[in-house]
C-alpha cells in the first residue's frame, strides 16, 4: 500500500526525552559539540513502527552513524557538517551499506533487497547539521510512487499491463545519487477486471531525458498491440506518477484515453500527458474451417472465415419462437468466407475442415459443376470456373447447418480513397466498428470496405442513398427481442415513417448478417437496386428483402439465406401504393423455414394498391424445408405466389408475374417447390397472367408436392411451361396438385 506524506524529525541535545523535546523551546542555531538525539514529529499515522538511520559527514568522511526506532531515538555522537536521515516502517526491505563511521565513501549506500516485490515508502532528509539542530526537520518521501487504474472498462476487458524500466538499483550517500548496473531494474504492474487499481513505491530512475511508458492491453476480441506513451520527465526522488486508462468512449467510438500525471516536490503544478487511441477490434477466428486462395504468383493466401448463425427450424420451430435476447440456444453455427479475386480466369481455393472427420462432401448449386478434389484427410481443393459460379455451399455428409458458404466478389473499381474521401461518404475501413446506428441523408453513401465488420442499424431518410463495399454489416449487437414474433429493429430501413415517397436506394457488394427482424425493410421507395449482396439471418420474422409499395426494384446476383421469407413483395396497410416493375435475377435462395421468393402474401386490397409486373429469372433455390398437408391453409413454398388481403377483405389484383429459368436444387424431402395460393373467404379476388417456365426441380431424395389452390377465388391465364421434376413434366408426376374452381391453366 502506498503511504505518501511528510514526517518531521527533531534533532535535540542529548539527555532530553521524547516528550520533553516536543514541549521544549527551539534550540540555538549553533551546532552542538557533543552528542544529540533524533526524534520524530508528524509521521503518517499508520507508521506506528518505524526505523531511522542518521549519517553524519564531514567533508568526504563519515564521522557518525546512529540508528533509532519510533520508541528509541537515534543518538548521534559526532554531528559533523552534513547529515543524511533515512526512515521507513519496513527498513528490512532494503540492503543498507556500512553503519559505522570511518569507512570509504563508497561504503555508504542502500538498495532494495527484493525488486520483485512491492517496495515500502522510504523518507529522507539531507542538509547541514546546524539546520537539523536549529528546527524541526521535514522528512519527505524519497521513493517515487506509481499508481495504475482503469475506469469504465467493458465486460470484455481482461487486463492491462505496464513496465517501468531504468530504475536505480543503488543509492549512494551523501549525495543520494541513483546508479545502476546495466539497464537497472524494472517493475511490472497489471490491472484486471477484478482488480482495477494497483501501485507501489519505486526507486528513482537513473539519468534524465525522454522515456516510454508502455501499455499492453488484453481485451477479448481486440488486438493486443502495445500502446506507447512518451514522457518527458523521469521518475525522480519523491515524485508520484499515475496512469489512468479511461474506457468511457470505448463502446461508442472504440476509443481508449490514456492519462499520465506526474507530481513532484519541485513543481507547483503536475505535468500531464494524454493519448487517445483507436483500439482495433478483431473477430474470433473460425474454429470450423480455414480457407486459402491460390494467388497468381503461386502462393496461397488465407482468407478470413466468419461464423454465421442459422436455424434448423423444422426440428425445433415451436421452441425457437421464444428464443430471444440473443440466447441463441437453438441456433446452429454455419460459416461463410468472402474474399476478392479478379475472376479473369478460374480461381482455386483450399478448404480445411478443422473439426471432426467426414465421409463425403458436396458442392451446391449442383449445376455449378464444381467438384472438390481431396488433398489430404481433412482438406479439399476446388476450382471456381467463373465469376457467375462464384457463390456456393460446401456441405460435409449432407450437413446444411454447419456448412461453409463461399461468397467471393470482384474488387470494387469504384472504391473510394480512404485518404481523400468525398464529403458525402461515410467510410469504415478494415477492422471492427460499433457505431450502433447510422443515418443516411440525401445523396450519402455508406462504404464498408473489405476486411471491415460494422455493427449497426441503418436508417435511410433521404433520396439517392447507397450502401457499398466488400465488408460485413452485422446486427449481432443490436437487441434481439420479442414474444411470439421478433420486435427488434428492422436492420436496414428506407422511409421508416412510411410517409411520402423516397427515390433511389442502392446496395452493392456487402454481406449482411444477424438482423433482429426484417433485414431490408424497403417501404415506399422507388428505383431500388440490391446487387451482389449476401444476407444470412437466423431469427423468426428475419426476412431478407421486403419490397412494400416499391416501383422499380432489382435484386440481382445475391445470396440470401434466412429463417423467414428470403424475398417478399408486398402491399400492406402501411404502404398502400402498388408494388410493380420488379426484377429478381441470378440469385441463390435458401429458406430455412418460411418461403424462398414470395410474391405476397400481403397483397393490398381493392381499395389500395396491388402487385404486378414482376420477373423472377435465372435463380436457384438451394433449400426450402416446410410442407403442410392441409394445402388450403398453407401458402408456403420455394417459389410462391400468395394472395392475402391487407387493409381490406379482398386482395388487390395480382397480375403479370413470371418465374422463368429457375432450378429447385435438392430441397429437403418435405419442402414444397412451387405454391400458388389464394386465401379463402375473400369474395373472389383475382390473379391473372402468371407464368412458370423452364423450372427444373432436382431431387435425389424426393420432395413435397407443388400446388395451385384457389380457395373459391379466380386464377386466369396461369401458364405452366416446361416445369419438370427430375426431367419429367411435373403435371405427369405425382408431385403436382391443382385444387379449386375458377382456375385457368395452360401447360
SSE order and pairing:
Layout lengths: L6 E7 L4 H6 L12 E6 L9 E8 L2 E9 L4 E3 L5 E7 L5 E3 L12 E4 L10 E6 H6 L2 E5 L3 E7 L5 E11 L2 E3 L4 E3 L5 E8 L4 E5 L9 E9 L6 E6 L8 E7 L3 H4 L1 E9 L7 E8 L10 E6 L5 E4 L1 E6 L2 H8 L11 E6 L9 E7 L7 E4 L8 E4 L2 E6 L7 E5 L7 E3 L18 E4 L2 E10 L4 E4 L3 E9 L4 E5 L2 E3 L17 E3 L7 E7 L2 E3 L6 E4 L1 E7 L2 E4 L7 E4 L2 E6 L2 E4 L4 E5 L7 E7 L2 E4 L5 E7 L7 E7 L2 E4 L15 E5 L10 E12 L8 E5 L7 E13 L7 E4 L4 E12 L2 E2 L6 E4 L3 E4 L1
Parallel strand pairs: 11-19, 25-31, 32-34, 33-35, 34-36, 35-37, 35-38, 36-39, 37-40, 38-41, 39-42, 40-43, 41-44, 42-45, 43-46, 44-47, 45-48, 46-49, 47-50, 48-51, 49-52, 50-53, 51-54, 52-54, 53-55, 54-56, 55-57, 56-58, 57-60, 58-61
Antiparallel strand pairs: 1-2, 1-10, 2-5, 3-4, 3-6, 6-9, 7-8, 8-13, 9-10, 11-16, 12-15, 12-17, 13-14, 17-18, 19-20, 20-21, 22-23, 22-26, 24-25, 26-29, 27-30, 28-29, 30-31, 58-59
Account of the protein in words:
- The chain is mainly beta and 747 residues long.
- The protein folds into four domains: 7-141, no CATH class; 145-278, Immunoglobulin-like, CATH 2.60.40; 289-406, Dextranase, N-terminal (Dex49a from penicillium minioluteum complex, domain 1, Sandwich), CATH 2.60.350; 425-624 and 645-666 and 687-698, Pectate Lyase C-like, CATH 2.160.20.10.
- The strands form seven sheets. The chain has a 30-stranded mixed sheet that branches. Strands 4-3-6-9-10-1-2-5 form an eight-stranded antiparallel sheet.
- Mean pLDDT is 89; it is low at 3-32.
